[in-house]
Design goal:
The protein has a 7-stranded mixed beta sheet, with helices on both faces. It has 7 helices and 7 strands; from the N terminus they run H-H-E-E-H-E-E-H-E-H-H-H-E-E. By secondary structure, it is α/β, with parallel strands linked by helices. It has one domain: Vaccinia Virus protein VP39 (Rossmann fold). Helix content is 32%, strand content 24%.
Length: 225
């Protein structure tokens, strides 16, 4: 694994209460909310070296295809990182769980064939900087696979998302912002947007500010021109 020499300050992200809640909620959402199927869809067809941004408790690890030679999983929150280490030991592909943040990835430039961002870009403190870092560590032509909360296409829910983002939502849910326009941010970071689709999580029932999601792929261009 090609890690870049960079000292990571301890606990740059610290949400111990939310981490315990998320560890329980995410497993239930995978089992009953249909998210496990979306994880499998997100990772289908990947190969080579992959970096996963904000791996959480490692629920993606079981879905990586055998063609993936190595996963470097970045997770800044200590409690979730410990759970991710356990998930890595059960994975069928090699997974190395590493402390770090999306805005300062502790790896060399152009070292990965693909990057995975799964329900994490809503929580990073500086989205443009995080996407710039992802672009840096991908080889030219490398893929960014994303499955993210995002701004609703309709006015009503989008307005509600903006309100809760300015008030209680980030405080209650580990820094999550529901009104970020993921697609626009990915394009603004210099990626070439590929196929994507919008979906709801959960697919049925009450629609929450976090329900609108987007799942898709983007690529780092072969040329920066």
């Amino acid at each position: 694994m090609q890690l870049r020499s960079r000292k990571i300050p301890r606990d740059m992200v610290h949400h111990p209460v939310f981490a315990r809640f998320y560890a329980r909620m995410s497993v239930a959402a995978d089992d009953r909310g249909g998210i496990a199927a979306r994880r499998a869809e997100l990772l289908t067809g990947l190969s080579g070296r992959v970096i996963e941004i904000g791996a959480g408790n490692g629920l993606n690890f079981a879905h990586y295809p055998a063609a993936v030679s190595e996963v470097v999983a970045i997770e800044p929150e200590r409690s979730l990182r410990q759970l991710a280490v356990g998930a890595a030991l059960r994975a069928e592909v090699p997974v190395d769980v590493v402390p770090g943040t999306a805005e300062a990835l502790p790896v060399k430039s152009e070292a990965f064939d693909a990057a995975v961002a799964s329900l994490v870009l809503c929580t990073v403190r500086n989205l443009p900087r995080a996407l710039a870092e992802i672009r840096r560590v991908l080889r030219p032509g490398g893929e960014l696979r994303f499955f993210e909360h995002g701004l609703a296409p309709g006015r009503g829910l989008a307005a509600a998302q903006r309100v809760v983002d300015r008030t209680v939502w980030p405080l209650l849910f580990g820094g999550c912002h529901t009104a970020r326009d993921t697609l626009a941010a990915v394009e603004a970071a210099g990626f070439e947007l590929g196929t994507y689709r919008r979906l709801r999580i959960p697919e049925k029932g009450v629609q929450l500010p976090s329900s609108p999601c987007v799942l898709g792929v983007a690529r780092r261009p072969f040329s920066d021109d």
